């Protein structure tokens, strides 16, 4: 196949309209209108600059070793949804300023998306009208991502497949405004519709700032967000992931994931920011680096809904008032912590099931609806705030071990409140500097924590 090399906008347009299938750009071409690549066309090399929408893909297109720039609120790469099927859309070593937005809707009812290296240097998604949504229990929407792959069909027979490797988004100096990386099927939590089947989603460094006004009830965001309808064999976060805005967990799973592995530290700075939120289905969550939350109402890990078989953490530290290290609201057969579980704050407001409520900080909170088969901690379980409880156990725990004990170090703070019998708890070293070591709960009324 003959490759056409172009250096100007006129040459680029001529190559496209003449039916060339392999186009290489040398240098920079700027001031372009939206460029639609016909079926089977590959575009590689150089820099393309657009004032509005950028490169629109159709079917069986390749973008390789190219930088595509537009306004941050625009889409640098998008697809034509009037085309019947994606074929294979392939992005290899691509950098954008502006969103990468790939949608299955309208005529697009099949196809495969392959990414081998993509950096979304900047994007602003705050003005997007269409958003995945759910009820938790109130109506809640999710901001789109700098990279968004979304099967929007309500028909459950429509499946898009993907292999998504080495996607990075934003930087510490210039975070994505909105979600960093978002992949999903139909996008309605607890709904039904089209599927997105992904073998591997691997992300690099991700920085995202939601820009959401604090104490907003019905809008959330994330660093890496897996939406309902996504079925992913393996998620790997190979780079650090940091979120800065309100209502913005680092990771949020509404989908169906086999193994989720976190290899680098993750940090949430904003109010009601969480390290990892679990709503969907997940077999193994393996967090091999520290989780840190800095903002008020920030929690390390929440098992809100769905299923999770095994969770293992390096360490978790929450700094803000209303922060909770780990919340378990559903059955969890095995929970392990290699290092410390530490909460520094006191009472504060946090977004809880779509509602802003006052919550007291805690290190571990097992709800009446939750249970843990085996809990093992090789570090310490500590709260440092005043008037809090370090460990609250209202649900069942089959086996409990805390190698370096449980401590309430703040004023007027208790170490453990427990309902029923927890095997192994009596062997743990429990201390409270200015409160009670162990309180037996004998009422049927649940306590309100994070």
Report what the structure shows.
The longest helix has 9 residues, at 9-17. Mean pLDDT is 94; it is low at 445-450. This protein is an all-beta fold and 450 residues long. It has one helix and 46 strands. The strands form four sheets. It has a 26-stranded parallel beta sheet that branches. The protein has a 15-stranded parallel beta sheet with strand order 4-7-9-11-15-18-21-24-27-30-33-38-41-44-46, with no helix packed on it. Strands 13-14-20 form a three-stranded mixed beta sheet, with no helix packed on it.
Instruction: Indicate the structural class.
Output: mainly beta
Biggest beta sheet summary: 26 strands, parallel
Rg, alpha carbons: 24 Å
Distance between the termini: 60 Å
How much beta, percentage-wise? over 45%
Unreliable parts = 445-450
Sum up the overall morphology in one term. Answer: elongated
